[in-house]
Amino acid sequence: MKTSITFTLNDREVTVDTLPMARLLDVLREDLRVTGTKEGCGEGECGACTVLVDGHPVNSCLVPAIQLQGARVQTVEGLAQDDRLHPIQEAFLKHGGAQCGICTPGFLVAAAELLAREPHPSRAQVREALAGNLCRCTGYQKIVDAVVEALA
Ligand code: FES
Ligand code: FES
């Protein structure tokens, strides 16, 4: 049976009627039509679907809707403010860190979370923060370069 769930999405309160065990990923993409968050593996392995819930990175393919009641959710759409890109988005552009449309939103959200808690991380810390985000094709050098620059 569907239930009504209210939470904050990118600083805006939203209410959805959905199944309690519906995946956050589907609530975002299908119920709310907020499609920046992408599905890769659907099994919690690739990080493509990373969003922040109450400031913490989670795989939205594993989070049931029932856990969202009253939560604060931030997706890639919430990074830019007032038509200004987030510094991490600027850095990805500059360094070619945005490689494909499937993995990039998850990398951006995970990197933005690192920026919020650690203004000057080491390269190793950047790699650790992004360890849950997989790229199956081009590799991580440009992504790590972009994050290191954005946070320098
Ligand atoms: S789609 Fe969620 S971790 Fe891969
Ligand atoms: S999976 Fe996106 S660039 Fe490799």
Using the alpha-carbon principal axes, give the shape.
globular
What is the domain total for the residues? 2
Residue share in helices? 25-40%
- In this structure, how is the largest beta sheet organized? 5 strands, mixed
What low-confidence regions span 5 or more consecutive residues with pLDDT below 50? none
Give structural notes:
By secondary structure, this protein is of the alpha+beta class. The protein folds into 2 domains: 3-78, Roll (Ubiquitin-like (UB roll)), CATH 3.10.20; 87-151, DNA polymerase, domain 1 (Orthogonal Bundle). The chain has 5 helices and 5 strands. It has helices at residues 24-31, 87-95, 104-117, 123-129, 141-151; strands at residues 3-9, 12-18, 50-53, 56-59, 72-74. Strands 2-1-5-3-4 form a 5-stranded mixed sheet, with helices on both faces. The longest helix has 14 residues, at 104-117. The chain is globular and about 45 Å long. The N and C termini lie far apart (49 Å). The mean pLDDT is 93. The structure holds FE2/S2 (inorganic) cluster (2 copies).
Write the layout of secondary structure elements.
Elements: E1 3-9, E2 12-18, H1 24-31, E3 50-53, E4 56-59, E5 72-74, H2 87-95, H3 104-117, H4 123-129, H5 141-151
Parallel strand pairs: 1-5
Antiparallel strand pairs: 1-2, 3-4, 3-5
Helix pairs in contact: 2-5
Short characterization:
The protein is of the alpha+beta class and 152 residues long. It is built from five helices and five strands; from the N terminus they run E-E-H-E-E-E-H-H-H-H.
